Amino acid sequence: MGYANALENPSFETNTTPTNMLGNDGNPSSNTPGWKTTEAENTIEVLSTDHPNSGFLHSHEFTADDGKWFAEINAKSASALYQDVLTTPGQTMNWQFAHRARTGAGNPQVGDSDTMALIIAPLEFSEGITTDSQLKALNNGLNSGAGHSFRISSTDAYNRYTVKSVTQDSQGSTYVVHDNTTNKDYSIYKVEDTSTITQGSYTETYTDWWGRTQTRTVNYLSSSWNRRSGSITVPEGQYTSRFFFMAVSSAVKDGNGGDSIGNFVDNTWFSQDPLPPASGTVRITVEKVVKGLSQADANAFFTAHASDLISQTVYDGKTASGTGTAETVTLTGVTAVDGGYKATYTKTYEDVETGSSKTFVTSENAGNVSVTGYDLKSTTVTDSNNDKASNNSIATTVTSGNSDTSSATVTITNEYTPSNRTLTLTKVVDKGNANKEFTFTVSAKKGDADVALTVPDGGSATVANGVVTAELHSQESATITVPYGATVSIAETGRDGYTTKYTVGDGVATASADGKCTVSDMTADTTVTATNTIKPVELTIRKEITGAQADLTKGYTFTVAKDGGGSYTTGELHDRKGESGTGDSVTLGGASATGLELNWGDKVTVTETDNTGYTTTYQVTVGSGDATSGNGKATSQIALDADSTTVVFTNQKVSTPVTAVLTGGTPAALGLVAIAGLAIAGGFALARRNAAQAAASAPAHMAGRRKRR
Questions:
Q1: How many of the other CB atoms lie within 10 Å of CB of 466?
Q2: What is the domain partition of the chain in residue ranges?
Q3: Which of 195, 196, 296, 424 keeps 20 to 30 A from 237, CA to CA?
Q4: Which of 560, 572, 554, 536 shows the shortest CA–CA distance to 620?
């Protein structure tokens, strides 16, 4: 079910009971909105000043404290009426009730009395208390005082609850009760009121037997409404409270109606608002509310202008005319309200004849509303009986004798916006050189117009023409003062080789390809974090082979050594197509899984394995730059300051030519041909000469063989 933040139907004026009701023990609680009862048959007895009987005694007995309806707590038993109300821990709440003894039934006597109690308990403690016997057990336990243990329900342990302490104020007592089962403490507030029956009399005129007019004194039993009021501070953690209006005892004795007669109650109240004014009085309350200020600034504002912020003129009657009386309005008691802080002024005017009115003209002294560091956005003036005012002044009329119009509250609300907001820019290097300096340029606009930024004295940033420059290393911050509501543009420079992600407040980091960030509508202090991460780079090594004598089956490995530590040796790279095609290559760093991490700005040296017999050259191309050449099997140190770098090693091997020149100027090649020809001719001649010599010296038997042939 839902709960209200004040007592509902506090004077029993809303009900479905017939208007001539004198009391009905059969009236179900559903006829009386807002109220519940501990009475076993769920009966609430309500009574009205409208009734068919006449005469002084009836008119005296059936009078209400407020309106024309009231309730009798003793219905069919000495029960209790109760409601559950939302409460705010730490908040001061005002309470009230009116109580009177019943005199017209059950044969009470002068000096007898009715006693009732208001018990305010946290709902967590009291939610299960719904019967007369349970509530009486609680009341008896509280009355037993500190140190006493008791139980409420027959299912409780005998010593479930213990009264730890009792503290009294001018109206009631606060009991701290410990629940020994749950090991929790609860604060319970209790107020008792006793209404005593007195002897009343009046003079009655009558006609005797002889027709003569006579007078006589008639005695009767009388009682009057006791109105009790006070305030409590809601204990910590008590967000819902139960209010019991409980019949404790009655003037009527058993045998004459017993527990079913007694204890009238009316005009109950529980609210953060002040109590309604008593009959014959009117009251005006002025509330000054400021929104948008810090607590310290609100306190300083109310301290500085406690008596010079609001002026008020009071007129007798319903119009602001004639001669009014100027009143001094002094604001006190700064408290937190939704979205701001409030100070109040309340004045009650006594002895105002029923039906008479006073009109209050309440104005704000606009010259005193300025607050350093804030701009006044709007002012609203209202009163509880009228609509919003159109300017900084409002006329309010209150009339005595009507609970709806005998008081009014004028509320003047100033809403402020800070003149400036603070932007805190923080640099973080997530990965890379933490000593690297990054430069930020910060500017701002409101609409299409440039607005000037400033920095606090002693800050790390500088300002020129309203534009801030901040040079930051990792974990350094700059504080910048921004006009309220401006749009801020941030641009980072000096970020070559780094990616940038911006986080605004607690938001998600957003990557920025251009190093820029926009913070729209600076209506709150804001933190911007620029996180830089160094870029990974790629290094590609390629093998090229040239020359007629080159061995295209030979492979070469390369070692990459990084300045500062770390190296990697490749597998063999070939160029089996030689000059007719591109050789093998390998890529390191970046997304490759070679194990050697390469980042922007790293410095490396690339060395080729043994290349004896070859002429070795290399070309290095960094990014889109021009290639640089070198000789030897090891490169000079290469700075990787682009997304990619390519190193091409070329090995060349050719035959060595003969360079002699023949006499007479014959080219060497022709000379070689001539020499070769002479050698062949000489060989033939030599062979023939040797054959002839052999034949001349041959033995005789050889000669004979030749003959047979």
A1: 13
A2: 29-138+189-196+227-271, 282-418, 424-531, 538-652, 664-708
A3: 296
A4: 560
